[in-house]
Write a structure and sequence with these properties.
With 254 residues, this protein is an alpha+beta fold. It is built from nine helices and nine strands. The two termini are 37 Å apart.
Length: 254
Amino acid sequence: MAVKENEESNSAMRKYHEQMLKLVAKGFYNELINYGVEKADVLSVAGHLLDNVMVKGPTNKLVDYYNRLFTIKDVQNDWATTKSLTLQQVTIAPMDPSLIPRIATWLRTPAIRESFYPRFPDSEAELGRYFLAPTREYCSIFYQQQFAGIIGAENIDTESARLEMRKLVGDPGMHGKGIGKRATFLFLYHVFMVRKFKKVYLHSLDINIRNLNLNGKFGFELEGVFLEEARIQDRWRDVIRMALAAPVWLELFS
C-alpha cells in the first residue's frame, strides 16, 4: 500500500512540474512575440536556450533570493501601537479613505485598470464602498512617508484562515525601487505573524514569466490555471492562481 501511495504521489508531482513547464513555455513564447520576435526565429531562440543549458555555472533557487535581502527579524512591528509595519523605508498601515481619489486616478490608466482580475470599480464612490466591504482589508503603502500604493486582502475567510492578496504601486515615480517587493513581504508578515492566517493566494492575468518568478521568490506555488477565464477588450485571457502556506513562508524567512 505504501509503495502504491508513493507512486501516486510521484505521478502527481510529475504532472505538476509538466504543467508548470508548459505554462512557462507558453508565457515565454508570448513574451517573445510581444517583443517583436518573428515566429520563424523562435526556433533560433530555442537553440540559444540549449546553448545556455550546456554552460556550467552556479544555480540559485528562487526561494533563496529574498531571504538574502530581508528576514522576519528585519520588520519593525508597531502594529500593536500605531497599526504599522516597516521594512527598509517602506511602511504599510490601514488605508485612509481620504486616499481613494488618488487610487481612482491611478486606476483610470487602462494598463493598470486592466491588469487586475476582477477589475476594481471605476468611480470613486464605488471604490469607497468596495474598500469598506467586510470581506476586504486594505493597507496603504508608503515609501519614505510618501503614499505609493495599496496592498490588501480580498475574500477573507476566517474559518479557513485564508485570503486573497492584491497589490498596486500606482505612483509612476515609485516604480523600480523595490517598493512592491517590500510591501508584499510586510503584508505576508501581517497575515502570517499578526493575523495568524494559514494561506495566502493570488490571481494574475495570463502566463507572465516575470510574475511567476517574483511570486516564486516569496514561496508561492502554482495552484491552478483557468484557461480563457477573463475577457478583456474582446480578448480571452488565462488566469493563474498561486498560493503560499504559512509554514513554507516561515521556514524561508525565519
